Structures are given as structure tokens and as C-alpha cells.
TrEMBL record:
Keywords: Flavoprotein, Oxidoreductase. It holds the Pfam family Pyr_redox_2. One of its GO terms (molecular function) is thioredoxin-disulfide reductase (NADPH) activity. InterPro entries: FAD/NAD-bd_sf, FAD/NAD-binding_dom, Ferredoxin-NADP_redctase_2. PANTHER family: THIOREDOXIN REDUCTASE 1-RELATED-RELATED. SUPFAM superfamilies: FAD/NAD(P)-binding domain. Residues 6-274 form the FAD/NAD(P)-binding domain. The keyword Oxidoreductase applies. This is Thioredoxin reductase. It comes from the Bacteria. Signal peptide: none annotated. It catalyses: [thioredoxin]-dithiol + NADP(+) = [thioredoxin]-disulfide + NADPH + H(+).
Length: 312
């Protein structure tokens, strides 16, 4: 291989991408990870639910991961893939060009937040989406859930598991009588009206404003619309939903893992998906290596012919 050619190009250096690169590096593959440095969970102070890493800052997990990859010769580039063609030649923002036999895309998503004053400043700390990731830290405190879609009611009923003091703000999402009854039955208070701002004081969320009305809360949960960073995938002909359980897509030679194809994946799930994809991907490379070796050996010779030749 040349200096800029690899067995596998991993696009995205979050939990999924680094986990895949670790598996591939341990399989003695030549791997390059290209990471643009904008992980979804960057605003969060800690991550949770990751066995042995619970409470670790997300940036620390990535730092540890990169250090582990270095021990296996995996090259990590702080760069961005600007173009990726069907032959798996990638052009980077720095101008460098890489080629690979296979590609794994783990570029993640971003959350499309409602345009409310104070919300973006609170995002990832005390305005969050996942109660499994952040609920325990605000347990038994006054919590809010912002309605952004009909399924936000289910979100509020879920958040109720962490606190007896939950307020649901339908905001601009109509609330059916059935849903209102369900919320009432679980002790979730409903405050009608359009939310106009998220109030912050001394760097912390303190509540929700609905015009002149103010409802004190210490945290706000929101079901966001996630936007996958899948331009590279789509440029190769990727069809949404085509990934199999091991991350193989409808595009030959292309795998995908993590939030880019599964927005609900938490950090530990994304890491597992990356590892699974790497295993399947390496098996695919092994099959190609074997076929190349057979072709170089002179092709397949049936057993009868080999026996006859040995008898002569």
C-alpha cells in the first residue's frame, strides 16, 4: 500500500468510529480515521450508562480512545472529508487525498432545536433529550418536558420515572383528551400555552417562560428532530434504512454505524455498533484477500485434477 492508501477509511471519530477502528487495528488492518471534531454530545459535561465509564466527560472518552488506537498503528486525522467517490477516494479539507478498499461512515447527527431564547445556551447541560443519560442527575427535582411532537407525551411519561414533579408544556403541539388523562393519572402537571423562552440565571436553567408567566424548573427534556450527517453516504447511493444488523449498507464496500443511521443509539450502543460493523467489514476483506490469493495462485483446481497431477 502507498502512504495514502488504507484497508479501511473510517469517517467520524466518535464512539462508533473509534470503536470500529480499534477492532480493525487489532485485526492488523491499515486504518485511517478522519474526524471533523463536532460530536453530538460535546456540550454535555458527563456521559452515563457506559459500563466502566459512567460519569466520564465525553471528550475524555475520545481522548482515551485515540490513545488506544495509537498502540495499534491506526492513523487519526483531525480533518474533514469533503468528497468521497464511488472508488473510495476521499478528498480532505486540508487537500490530502486518501484511498481505501472499504469505508465505514460514523458521522453522527445534530439536534434541530426549537428557536427559543435561552434554549441553545442550556443544551446538553440542563436542557437535554435523553432521560437515561441525564435523568438520574436531576432526580426528584422540578423537571419540565417541552412538547415538540405528539410523542412528546410519551417522553413526559418516561421522565416521570425520575421525579414526582414533572410539568408538561404542550407548547404548540395539540394535546388530546386521552393524553391529558394519561398525564393527569401519572401526576404530570400540564401547563398550556406557547413557551416563549427558557430562563437562565448564573449559568443555569431556572425555568420556562410563557409570556408573562414563569414556571420554575431545574431541567427541561425535549424530543428533538435529529438530522443525520449522511451527505457522504447519500452521495455514494445510500438508501435510508438499508443498513443490516452489522452495519452493511446497500452500497458495496460501505458500512455505517452509530447515530448517522440510528439516532436513538446512546454512546455505548454506538460503540457496540462500530465494533460489530468492524468485525463484518474485516470478514469481507478476508474474503477478498483469499480470492486475490487464489487468483494469483493460478485459480481453483478441482481435487480430481490435483490427484491426477500428483500421480504423474
Amino acid at each position: 500500500m502507498t502512504e495514502n492508501s488504507y484497508d479501511v477509511l473510517v469517517v467520524g471519530g466518535g464512539a462508533a468510529g473509534l470503536s470500529a477502528a480499534l477492532m480493525l487495528g487489532r485485526a492488523r488492518r491499515r486504518v485511517a480515521v478522519v474526524d471533523g471534531g463536532s460530536p453530538r454530545n460535546a456540550p454535555a459535561q458527563h456521559m452515563h450508562g457506559f459500563l466502566s465509564r459512567d460519569g466520564l466527560p465525553p471528550s475524555e472518552l475520545l481522548k482515551i480512545g485515540r490513545e488506544e488506537l495509537a498502540g495499534y498503528g491506526v492513523e487519526v486525522l483531525d480533518d474533514r472529508v469533503t468528497r468521497l467517490d464511488a472508488g473510495f477516494t476521499a478528498e480532505l479539507a486540508s487537500g490530502r487525498e486518501l484511498t481505501a478498499r472499504r469505508v465505514l461512515v460514523a458521522t453522527g447527527v445534530h439536534d434541530d432545536l426549537p428557536e427559543l431564547p435561552g434554549l441553545r445556551e442550556s443544551w446538553g447541560t440542563d436542557a437535554v433529550t435523553c432521560p437515561y443519560c441525564h435523568g438520574y442527575e436531576v432526580r426528584d427535582q422540578p423537571l419540565g418536558v417541552l412538547g415538540t411532537e405528539p410523542l412528546s407525551v410519551e417522553h413526559a411519561l418516561l421522565v416521570r420515572q425520575w421525579s414526582p414533579d414533572v410539568v408538561y408544556f404542550p407548547h404548540t403541539t395539540p394535546l388530546s383528551e386521552e393524553d391529558r388523562t394519561r398525564l393527569d393519572a401519572r401526576g404530570v402537571r400540564v401547563v398550556d400555552g406557547a413557551v416563549t423562552a427558557v430562563r437562565r440565571e448564573d449559568g443555569h436553567l431556572t425555568g420556562v417562560e410563557l409570556g408573562a408567566r414563569f414556571v420554575p424548573r431545574v431541567a427541561l427534556f425535549i424530543r428533538t428532530r435529529t438530522v443525520p450527517h449522511d451527505d457522504l453516504l447519500r452521495g455514494l447511493g445510500y438508501e435510508e434504512g438499508s443498513t443490516d444488523p452489522m452495519g452493511k449498507t446497500n452500497v458495496p464496500g460501505v458500512w455505517a454505524a452509530g447515530n448517522v443511521v440510528d439516532a436513538r443509539a446512546t454512546v455505548i450502543i454506538a460503540a457496540a455498533q462500530g465494533a460489530a460493523a468492524a468485525g463484518a467489514l474485516n470478514h469481507d476483506l478476508v474474503a477478498e484477500d483469499v480470492q486475490r490469493a487464489v487468483d494469483a495462485f493460478g485459480g481453483f483446481t478441482p481435487a480430481a485434477e490435483r490427484a491426477a497431477a500428483a500421480a504423474r
